[in-house]
Every structure is written in structure tokens, then in C-alpha cells.
UniProtKB/TrEMBL annotation:
Gene3D superfamilies: Nucleic acid-binding proteins (2.40.50.140)
Name used for this protein in its record: SSU ribosomal protein S1p
Single biological process term from Gene Ontology: translation
Family affiliation: Belongs to the bacterial ribosomal protein bS1 family.
Key words of the record: Ribonucleoprotein, Ribosomal protein
Organism: Nonomuraea gerenzanensis
One Pfam family here: S1
Taxonomic lineage: Bacteria, Bacillati, Actinomycetota, Actinomycetes, Streptosporangiales
Record-annotated S1 motif domain positions: 25-92, 109-185, 202-259
Domain of life of the organism encoding this protein: Bacteria
InterPro entries: NA-bd_OB-fold, Ribos_protein_bS1-like, S1_domain
Length: 260
């Protein structure tokens, strides 16, 4: 395990296991007392937390938000974060406690297996081998497009297909959607870093133009390695000779110049 700290990719909050407040992870109850902009419905919690402002961050996936938190309504929710003295709650957690228990038990760096359940233009759903199914989505695991592969691709089908078995590294517990955010590429060597181990400024390579953009063209000079050339007199598919001008390992950026 790399870390016991979870960060919600959607809500931008620190989550269990390393809570930012003793109340994180607790189940609390209270009454909706007002609709407080811009934070949304304000909950007056029972007991010692009554004086601390509390609001709903993660709503149930069924029905409307208004139905879930009408003024005067009693609610039971899980504390997902405490930011600057304001408590944020999840109604989805208490609606699906088995799913939340499973997700909170995961840690960043854990490796999960499963099969590709559905492919969308915003990412890939993974039906995990362990844990409960998702009540709404095709799978509890979710991989965003950039986390599928280190290599450039035009179509997701170039990387994975529905029904395919996959292994992914856990990045975060997404409380908004009730998902384990995964990375497939994290379990594979980064071809850019492998290339950078041997490459140096001034070194020349043959390459192929892969994409034309307003500020130049991208040229592939090795498998999974592309760099930017600030020129506009070539087209995709053209063969060119280029030289390395700058190589930024941290940002995975490669600046090239054309050698004529």
C-alpha cells in the first residue's frame, strides 16, 4: 500500500483513512433547517455538532435533491469531510452502506481486478471481482480516458473492449459517484520515462507526424513517445527528422525541432 490517505477526485476533499477531523466517517443525524446558498441545504446536527454548519455533499442517486433534503426533514448521513469548520455529509453513504464499507476499505495503491462492463466517451466502467455491485452504474470501478494507457490512442477500443479482464491500481474513492477510481496505465512502465533514461538534448530521431495543432505538430519518435514540433508545413503521416530541444520528465513533455 502506498498511502492510507484518500482524496475524493470529484469533491476535492480528504477522506478516510486519514481523516481531517475526528468526525469524518461517523454517522450523524439532524434536521434540514434552511437552503443556504451557495452551500445548499443546511443541516442542524443532533448533539455536540449542532453549532457546526453542516451541508450535503453527496446526494442519493434516486429521486431529486429537493426530495432528499426538504426543510424540516430528518436525515441520517456520513461525515465525509470537515473543511474550515463546515461539515460535509453523504446521504449516498447511508443509502448504500455495504458499498461504502467496501470502498472505504480500499487504499490508494491497492490493485483490483475485474472485467470491462461498459465504455463511454468519458471513461470505462469496471465490474470488480470483489465487493458489492453498483446500484446505478455498470461497475464500481471507473477509469478515466487518460488513465487507460500511456500511449496515444484515438479510440478506447484500441486499449480495452467490453468483457475484457483488466487490473487497475486504486487512485481514489469518488464519494460523489460511489466509485473506485482506477488506473490501468499505473501498472505498466511509462514509455516516456524509459525513453528519457537514454535520450539527451540534441539527439536526432526519425519520426512520423501524428497530429496537427494550431501551435505546431506532434511527432512520434518512439513507441508511446511523442513530441511537439513548432512547424506547420507537414501533415499527419509525413516522415520527418527531428532533434530534441527540451525534455521535461516531470511533465512528460518533449520539445523537438525539425532537422532539414
Amino acid at each position: 500500500m502506498k498511502d492510507d490517505h484518500f482524496h475524493c477526485a470529484v469533491c476535492d476533499a480528504d477522506l478516510p483513512g486519514r481523516p481531517d477531523h475526528d468526525a469524518v466517517g461517523d454517522l450523524v443525524s439532524g434536521t434540514v433547517v434552511a437552503d443556504e446558498r451557495p452551500f445548499g441545504p443546511r443541516i442542524r446536527l443532533d448533539g455536540d455538532l449542532a453549532s457546526t454548519p453542516a451541508h450535503i455533499r453527496d446526494y442519493p442517486w434516486h429521486g431529486t435533491r429537493a426530495d432528499a433534503a426538504e426543510v424540516g426533514q430528518r436525515v441520517t448521513a456520513e461525515v465525509v469531510s470537515v473543511d474550515e469548520g463546515r461539515i460535509w455529509l453523504s446521504l449516498a453513504a447511508t443509502e448504500h452502506p455495504h458499498l461504502w464499507t467496501f470502498l472505504k476499505g480500499l487504499r490508494a495503491g491497492d490493485v483490483l481486478t475485474g472485467r470491462v462492463a461498459d465504455i463511454q466517451n468519458f471513461g470505462v466502467f469496471i465490474a470488480l471481482d470483489e465487493g458489492p455491485p453498483h446500484p446505478t452504474y455498470p461497475g464500481v470501478g471507473f477509469v478515466t480516458i487518460p488513465e487507460l494507457s500511456w500511449k496515444h490512442f484515438e479510440q478506447v477500443s484500441e486499449v480495452v473492449g467490453v468483457g475484457q479482464r483488466v487490473r487497475g491500481e486504486v487512485l481514489a474513492f469518488d464519494t460523489y459517484n460511489g466509485e473506485a477510481r482506477l488506473s490501468l496505465r499505473a501498472l505498466r512502465p511509462d514509455p516516456f520515462q524509459v525513453f528519457a533514461d537514454e535520450a539527451k538534448v540534441g539527439q536526432q530521431f526519425p519520426g512520423v507526424v501524428t497530429k496537427v495543432v494550431p501551435f505546431g505538430v506532434f511527432v512520434r519518435i518512439a513507441d508511446g513517445v511523442e513530441g511537439l514540433v513548432p512547424t506547420e508545413d507537414v501533415q499527419p503521416g509525413d516522415s520527418v527528422q527531428v532533434s530534441i530541444v527540451d525534455l521535461d520528465r516531470d511533465r512528460r513533455r518533449l520539445l523537438l525541432t525539425r532537422v532539414r
